[in-house]
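Folding Query — how this chain folds
Tokens — whole-number codes for backbone shape
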Amino acid sequence: MASPGSQSVSSSSETGSNLFDERRVTRRDAVAKAGKALTGGMGILAVSGSATASHGDTKPDHVTISEDIGWLSYYSPMLDLRHVPIENHPQLLGWRFSSPEYETEVGVYMAEYAVQDDVLTLTSHAGDHEFVYVFVDRETGEVDHVAYTAYHWLQGYVTNPNVNTEDGGAHPTLMVAPTYHNYVPQSSATSSSILLDVDSLGDPGERTGPLYQWLSNGGESSLATGAVHEPWNLSRHGTMTDWWSREGISAVNYWIVQAWATIGIRGADFADRGDRDL
């Protein structure tokens, strides 16, 4: 499959406008009030130096990050959102990663939800952030494998994902699970599967924008350094098996969700870690 042409974030907003429009949903259409209020509130936050440094500095010199919306839209995941109320449909944010040191490029996607609503206070909160990493063969342009948050930031991956090509792109098909918004690989798209418009995670040079705002708003203490800025750490060949920093309260949360996953409670029975050995 030929790889797509490049389109910068400053290019026309027509990216994908004539591709599979019936399944492509914009942030304005999907989130309506709740998500807009959340991201609007986050937008006024000052980005702390510690948040930008602790994560941004983990990017190796040989790695390039770009806000290539055309490329990101081409490989964006097709999400089955049947379990997610339309007012809580996520905003999909992304970056393109490349390096001469690796045989793959990576589309790093973060789905940002307005709320995670659960009966437990521990797992009920404003804002939820779930990751999908699409690893693309640098030579062929084909999807090599996909890593994703399979259960409370525990990693799953699939080495032979189903890829929907109906709109001319290459979209791994995933279902979003109830409540916790983790991903379940699908063998095909469904009537509930849609393509969300992709926006940028921010300016990687200036270290501003949605990702860094979230880090400054508490995400920094939870997210492992190197989990985003060197995404090959979470490839099927990588050394990381989850997105948790495992420091402070993050360590407690990590061990709690590991226990739930082992026992098979709190939605773990719905989780699918794909080809990862449990």
Notes: The helical segments are 27-31, 34-42, 49-56, 69-75, 210-222, 249-263. Confidence is low (pLDDT under 50) at residues 5-23, 25-48, 121-126. The first strand starts at residue 24 and ends at 25.
